[in-house]
Amino acid sequence: MTDPRLTPLAASLPASLPATVPFTGPETLERRSGVPFRARLGANESGFGPSPRAVEAMERAARDAWMYGDPEVHELREAIAAHHGVEPEHVVVGEGIDGLLGLLVRLTVGAGTPVVTSLGGYPTFNFHVTGFGGRLLTAPYRGDASDPEALIGLAREGGARLIYLSNPDNPMGSMHGPEAIRRMIEGVPEGALLVLDEAYGELAPPGSLPEIDPADPRVIRMRTFSKAYGLAGLRVGYAIGLKALVAGFDRVRNHFGLGRVAQSGALAAVRDRDWPGEVARRVVAAREEVGRIARAAGLIPLPSATNFVTIDCGRDGAFARVVLEGLGRRGVFVRMPGVAPLDRCIRVTVGPAEALAAFAEALPGALEEARSLADGGTAAR
Amino acid sequence: MTDPRLTPLAASLPASLPATVPFTGPETLERRSGVPFRARLGANESGFGPSPRAVEAMERAARDAWMYGDPEVHELREAIAAHHGVEPEHVVVGEGIDGLLGLLVRLTVGAGTPVVTSLGGYPTFNFHVTGFGGRLLTAPYRGDASDPEALIGLAREGGARLIYLSNPDNPMGSMHGPEAIRRMIEGVPEGALLVLDEAYGELAPPGSLPEIDPADPRVIRMRTFSKAYGLAGLRVGYAIGLKALVAGFDRVRNHFGLGRVAQSGALAAVRDRDWPGEVARRVVAAREEVGRIARAAGLIPLPSATNFVTIDCGRDGAFARVVLEGLGRRGVFVRMPGVAPLDRCIRVTVGPAEALAAFAEALPGALEEARSLADGGTAAR
Predict the structure, then answer these.
(1) Interface check B70 vs A, CB under 8 A
(2) Is A375 on the interface with B (CB under 8 A)?
(3) What is the C-alpha separation between B68 and B262, in angstroms, rounded?
């Protein structure tokens, strides 16, 4: 019998709230297997680490951790605004892009509100949309890239309030150039907002992102310190958009949610102009190395504008999952896309040489195991 | 003209979302005045700092900040559960009590849902209730303490879904003993949940908190690392409640919201069993000192079970505000309750000797200024 005090809560859960969490953490997998990973290449974290200046700033801030962070995030917001050449009123800083997506969805999506995204796109966005009762409309990928025209078409037909696009794309690593994105923005129907998730933006080839026009009411751009800046463990992201939209976040955000240590680390990170570029150079080299490893094993690495390489395992999703699990048993944590046909791939975050060496060592065995299992399965039928 | 794309958002703001932020940060006041505070005694932070072990843990974690925190917060959750002698499934860890209050309100409050709290109680809770469209019903304080009987009575009459009580109380510092709280829990009407905010719990006199019964569906208990643990700048809090209720948080929380640095610091803090007790001893001594300073200035310090002393300035809210502003101009940041008659007081966080010395130095001048202004005002009428 359900306790009557929980009835409204329990009754509302199946209808409106997500039943599953967006991602299983590597720590959970380690606890299940009892064996720690040798190489953490699944969460698109930056194994090249944060700027040494950010590390110093966090160490200093540790002693000041008894003080709340500035609820207006003033210094960091100003520094981000200066970095992008926009006014601070166009910038909202939050608890990662995940947190900002949640707030944006809360501000714009209610029961039944149509929202457009790619089929197989970022699960955490979907988690928020479902959690606020929105209705997801999905356009399939096209040639391993999101399909801007299909997304816009769907938004027009369905009267969508939000259109989500991750560019560069997660989980496929593909990217649309500035012209394609500008065309997409031109196509945003009245009453809709394009959520341009540029978490991997600093890792894209120079000049490949469209310029930021903060006064454009049709788009909100999102960036993070979790990828190129190497600060996933701080959880700081930001969005750039219309002042009125940015002001809306103040009405719903957790004002003291960004702690002093997080603000200090991110501030030092954004002030160190060289680090993201340095990381980007290492990422390019590491992507090539992951590509070589994949090809040496007879697999096809897809082109990537991010800090991961999505690798086509050449068969179906069940096969790729066996490869992924085999890598896991060999101490290498990777992830894979969630829906067909993208799920024929595994997604391998790039990292320092030792981590890639562990991947190179583990891949052939994991593949052999998967092939023998798949062929054995066929023979037994 | 409002941009059509913002119309639904802009139109919904006045009706359902809070127009003001719950608190102005000391950093904002410093920016306005151009002068930094000498003593930060307004936010009930712990000037005695975090455990040195927590500082070490954060420093170590700074170098690992490229990794996301465990989305299940496994180790910290287990450590908290062990500390309280409950199963981990009764514990949810989140981004401060503020964050957990927001999630709880989201899970339980919709448009028009009645919610009970004290008139002049914690503004951030009200911010969340208003933000999700709930309807606040308030019971006045009684003798500078919250009024459990009135709150329960109001909940019965109004069919409230949540009843909020901060115990020990913020902003008054008063406290109800375990018997009174047990009676209150017995009185919680069917369909309602008592939100027992025990942010200052570790600072209350030993034995003054009711035992935790995690299987009681009528109450959820909230604790934080921001007060006795001295980690306000990390933003980590937790709640203990029925397993089914705790499981509900997993459907709405920002799964990667608790970063690696925050988890590491809080874990070291909860494992250092001695620190909160050590802080509590220093707080008792510092409370006595603040009391002496207040009495020496002719004011009445109220009894406190927290790390702050609420001081009756002896006149009305306008007078207390002038005292507060005078302290601010003298470099001492304090806060005050928001509604009459509580607002005849200022609220002074305790802290190390230097900070209290700054308060002792500033108070007489601020008071004299306020008295002369008030008397001059009267004479001019």
Answers:
(1) yes
(2) no
(3) 11
A137 has pLDDT over 60: yes
> Domains in chain A and their CATH numbers?
23-48+275-375 (3.90.1150.10), 52-271 (3.40.640.10)
Pairing, β A300-301 against β A237-240:
unpaired
Write out pLDDT tens, residues A112-124. Answer: 999 999 999 999 9
Closest residue in B to A191 (Cα–Cα): B5
Q: What is the dihedral of CA B68, B72, B73, B75, to 10 degrees?
A: -120
Q: Are A108 and A241 within 8 A, CB to CB?
A: no
Inspect the interface and report whether the beta carbons of B260 and A233 lie closer than 8 Å.
yes
Phi-psi region of B237 (alpha: psi -120 to 50; beta: other; left: phi over 0): beta
Give pLDDT, residue B295.
98
Question: Are residues B244 and A55, on separate chains, in Cβ contact within 8 Å?
Answer: no
Reduce the DSSP state of residue A73 to 3 states and report it.
Answer: coil
Query: What does the alpha-carbon distance between residue B353 and residue B346 come to, in Å, rounded to a whole number?
Result: 19
Residues whose CB falls within 8 Å of the CB of residue B188, separated by 6 or more in sequence, listed in order: B152, B155, B163, B194, B218, B219
Residue B70: its chain A contacts at CB < 8 A?
Answer: 25, 27-28
Q: What are phi and psi of B289, to 5 degrees?
A: -65, -45
Of residues B128, B98, B134, B26, the one with CA closest to residue B257: B98
Asked if A1 is an interface residue toward chain B (Cβ–Cβ < 8 A), one would say no
Alpha-helical (H) ranges within chain A are: 7-16, 26-33, 52-63, 74-84, 96-108, 123-131, 148-158, 178-187, 243-249, 260-271, 275-296, 317-329, 353-380
Residue A225 in tokens = 């310190």
A204-235 pLDDT, tens digit per residue, is 999 999 999 999 999 999 999 999 999 999 99
- Does this model's pTM top 0.80? My answer is yes
Please list, in sequence order, all residues whose beta carbon lies within 8 angstroms of the beta carbon of residue B291, skipping any fewer than 6 positions away.
B301, B309
Query: Where do we find the tokens 């025990």?
Result: B198
ipTM for the complex shown: 0.95
Residue A200: closest CA among A163, A233, A157, A165? A165
- Measuring CA to CA, which residue among B369, B368, B362 is closest to residue B38? B362
Query: CA triplet A275, A276, A280: central angle to 5 degrees?
Result: 115
* Residues A275, A269 contacting (CB under 8 angstroms): yes
Structure letter (DSSP) for residue A126: H
Strands A308-312 and A345-349, sheet pairing: antiparallel
Concatenated DSSP letters of B86-115: S-GGGEEEESHHHHHHHHHHHHH--TT-EE
